[in-house]
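Request from the bench team (R.T.):
"We need a structural guess for the complex before ordering more pyridoxal-5'-phosphate. Sequence and SMILES attached. Just send the tokens back."

Command: build protein-pyridoxal-5'-phosphate structure.
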Amino acid sequence: MDTRSLPGTGPGPVIIEKPVESPLSAEERGRRTASPAFGTAMTEHMVSAVWSEDRGWHDAELLPYAPLLLDPATVGLHYGQSVFEGLKAFRSPAGEVSVFRAEAHARRFRSSARRLMMPEMPEELFLAAVDSLVGHDQAWIPDDPGMSLYLRPLLFASERTLALRPARAYRFVLLAFVTEGYFGPDQRPVRVWITDEYTRAAAGGTGAAKCAGNYAGSLLAQEEARERGCDQVVWLDPVERKWVEEMGGMNLFFVRGSGADARLVTPPLTGSLLAGVTRDALLRLAPELGIPAEEAPVSVADWREGCASGEITEVFACGTAARVSPVNEVATSTGSWTIGDGRTGEVTLRLSEALTSLQRGELPDPHGWMRPVPPSGRAGGA
Ligand SMILES: Cc1ncc(COP(=O)(O)O)c(C=O)c1O
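Reply to R.T.: structure attached below.
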């Protein structure tokens, strides 16, 4: 039996709501969310819940956003038992707010927790937390269609111990901040660095989990990319250093051919990549737009030669934070090359438009991916 699984004694998906006494005015919210740097324009509330061996999940509450008081021996800080998610809420032209693929993120949050020997949060509780926070703080989402509310669920080992074993107490928090695209509002094409020195993850490791350590381990390679004049690092497979895996915190897609012959290829989930929710959405949306899409390995040599011969016409990255983000230049330790004519390609634009239109509620949602969240009674303030 999985000793980390829920004993079933939790409170169910009930969030006790204790919102702030006086919400900020619309003017003050506007001031705080004008051109925010990613991850800084926090809203007024957070959801907190705790898990203990004897009580399971309990004390699920919506609270005013505030610092956490942590014991220096909080074990998650030491050994990295910490997993998180990233998902977004969007405002439609009619003003309604919906969260994109909240259920898929709830499932991935559980699977990341399982890999790190942490208690799996029931999907209903995850969704209740999202509904509560988005219900209260949705007035923070500006009318600007390029802006959205990024939701950050985090689960970490909160037991006060330095014993190296699965912790016996955990804390969940859910925060939200207002954001535009990760690379700014206009999604300019990015230049990438393929590192042959560092790897992100190996099969059997934690690459398929969204755990904190994966991101700490990526920073040095990201810095190497920055020193080479690149925006992002591209990871290769850890064994042969030959196959393209993903880019920074995003999955990669290659467009082979053009016009009516264009087709998409994305590297398969080998166990060391993160199974992106956006990646999955695009694999399903593209064929609906008449663009065949498949999962197949792409080598660096293939990438370089495909661009030289004109067979690879476009490359883009995708993820919740970055949306669809064109890649136009590639640098490696042995040379660099340009993709297509260096400008954002037609397929990238079509997919980007299809995804963002769906997320903003401008298109029908046949997959049921948007989770509408009505404002809570006290949402918004003046
Ligand atoms: C390493 C990594 N790959 C890919 C992605 C894209 O995943 P998603 O589309 O679910 O945001 C992310 C972001 O969560 C990531 O951190």
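Two things stood out. Residues 86, 246, 249-251, 274, 276-279, 319-320 surround pyridoxal-5'-phosphate (CB under 6 Å). Residues 123-137 form the longest helix (15 residues).
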